[in-house]
Amino acid sequence: MSKAAPGPIRTGIGGWVFPAWRGGTFYPAGLPQREELAHASRQLGCIEINSTFYRAQKPAVYAQWREQTPPGFRFSAKAPRTITQRHDLAEAGARAEGFIDGICALGDRLGPLVWQFADRHPGAAADFERFLDALPKQAHGRPLQHALEVRNPAAWTPELVAVARAHGAALVYSGSSDYPSFADPTADFIYARLMQSRANLRAGYPERTLEQWCLRAMRWARGEDNPDLPHVAADAKPGAPREVYVLFIGAAKHRNPGAAVALRKQLEGVGGK
User: Fold this and answer.
1) pLDDT tens for residues 230-245?
2) Based on CB atoms within 10 Å of each CB, which residue in 142, 176, 182, 189 is the most buried?
C-alpha cells in the first residue's frame, strides 16, 4: 500500500502593506499599492491578516481580498483582541461568531484563525477548554481551523496539549526567544510563526537554518513529529498528513518576504509543496 501524500506546505508573512517592501525589495519598483496583495499572493502561500486583531473588516472588504488572490492561496487572521483578552473565555462565543461570520467572506481563501492570548492571561487548561467549547467548528458549510497562540509560560502544560488535541486546535509554535516555543502537534494542521529574521541577511535566516525548516515542514506535512524542537508532552505519535503553515513574522520585518520566498523555493526543490 502506498503512503498517503503529504499535506500542503504554505510559507508566508504577516500583512502585505509595508513601505520597506517597495522599490524592488519585495514589490517591483513602480508597482501600484493597490496591486501589492495580488503580487504577494502569487509569491507566497499564505498571508496573516494582523489588522483584524485591532478591528474586524466588513465582509465586502474580505471579498475584495479574496478576488485579488489565486486559488490555493490562504489568508490566516488574528482574531480581535476584544475576544481573547476577556477574563472569562467562556463568554467569548457570541463575539467570536460575529467575527467568524464576517471573515467567512474570504471563502476558500480562509485559513487558520489565530487566537492570541497575552502573556499574563489566566493559564489554566480548563479556561482554554471552555473557550474552545464556545467556538464554532464550522461556518457557512466549511470547517474552521483554530490556532491558539498562548503566551503565558505557565499555561503550557500537558493538560493544555490534551485539550487542544481533543478539540482539533493547533498550538502555535512561536519560534521566538520572547515567548514560549513548543512544537507539540495537536491538530491536522501546523501553524508556526517564526520571529527571528536578521536584518543583515537578505533571506532573513542563514541558508542552513532555512534548510532545517524545510525538513521540519516536510516532516510535519507527512504526519510526523519534529523531536528536535521543544515539546511539553512526549507522547506525539505519527499520524495522517497535515497542512502546514510557516510564516515569518516581526523581527527584521523587511527581510521576512525574502525568508518566505527562499523557504518556498527550497521546498519546491525537494518535492515539497
Assistant:
1) 999 977 777 899 999 9
2) 189
